[in-house]
Amino acid sequence: MSHVTNIINNYNDNQYKLIFNAWPNLTGKKLDMAVFENNIKSFTIPDISGPMLNTQIGHIKQLHPNPVGYRQLNAFHVTFAVDEKLLNYYAAKCWISGSRVGETKSNKIHPDDYLHYNRIETVELQNLDNTEKVVSRMLFKRVFLTNLGSLQLQFGQSNIATFTCTFEYEECDFEVLVDEAEMNEIHTEIDINNR
C-alpha cells in the first residue's frame, strides 16, 4: 500500500510540452525550432492493439498473445498550426520530399551513419503537473518523418491553418523526474490546504 495515494491528481491533456532537438533542415534557409515548438496544436500516440492467435480444441476457444514484436507500434502524430511565414510546413515538405529523392542532411552526432540521415535524434514529450513543473518525460529516439498531411487554405473563413505530420521512431524511453518523496510532500501539502 506504500505506492497508493489518497489524493487524486488527474492528468490533463493540455499539460505537456514537445521539444525537437534538431529538425533536418533541407530548405536552404535559416530554420528556428520555435516555428515547430510554438505552433503545436496536438500530439497523438495512435491506438495500440495486441493481436491474438485463436485455437479451437473441440468446442473450446483458446486465445494466445501473438508475439509480433514492435512492428507498427512506433509512431506518433503531431498537428501544427502553420506559422505566419509558412516556414514550418515548407520545412516538413522539404524533409519528406528530399528523403524521397535521396537528398540528405547528415546527423551531427553520427556523421558516418548513412542509414540514419534525415532524422531527428530525439523528440522529448515533457509531462507537466498543475504547477507547470516537468514531472516525467517520454523520449522518442531516432525519429523520421514518414507522412505529411494535406494543407487546406480557403477563402471566407479565418480559421487557423493546420497540418499533421506522422513520425516513426526506433526507441522510446520514459523517465519520472519527481521522486516519490517529493510526490508525498506535494500530496500532503494539497491535503492540508483542502482541509
List key phrases describing it.
8 strands; single chain; alpha+beta; two-stranded antiparallel sheet; six-stranded antiparallel beta sheet; 195 residues; disordered C terminus; 3 helices; Pnp Oxidase, Chain A; globular; 35% strand
TL;DR?
This protein has 195 residues and is α+β, with helices and mostly antiparallel strands.
Structural overview:
This protein is α+β, with helices and mostly antiparallel strands. It has one domain: Pnp Oxidase, Chain A. It is 17% helix and 35% strand. The strands form two sheets. The chain has a six-stranded antiparallel sheet with strand order 1-6-7-8-5-2. A two-stranded antiparallel ribbon has the order 3-4. The relative contact order is 0.20.
- For the record, the CATH architecture stands as Roll
Which strand-content bin applies to the residues?
25-35%
The strand line-up of the biggest sheet is: 1-6-7-8-5-2
Total helix count?
3
Tell me, briefly, the overall form. globular
- Ranges where pLDDT stays below 50 over 5 or more residues in a row are 186-195
Number of domains: 1
- Please give the alpha-carbon distance between the first and last residues: 23 Å
What does the radius of gyration come to?
22 Å
List the helices and strands and how they pair.
Elements: E1 16-20, H1 34-37, E2 40-44, E3 52-57, E4 60-65, E5 75-81, H2 87-101, E6 120-128, E7 134-148, E8 162-176, H3 180-193
Antiparallel strand pairs: 1-6, 2-5, 3-4, 5-8, 6-7, 7-8
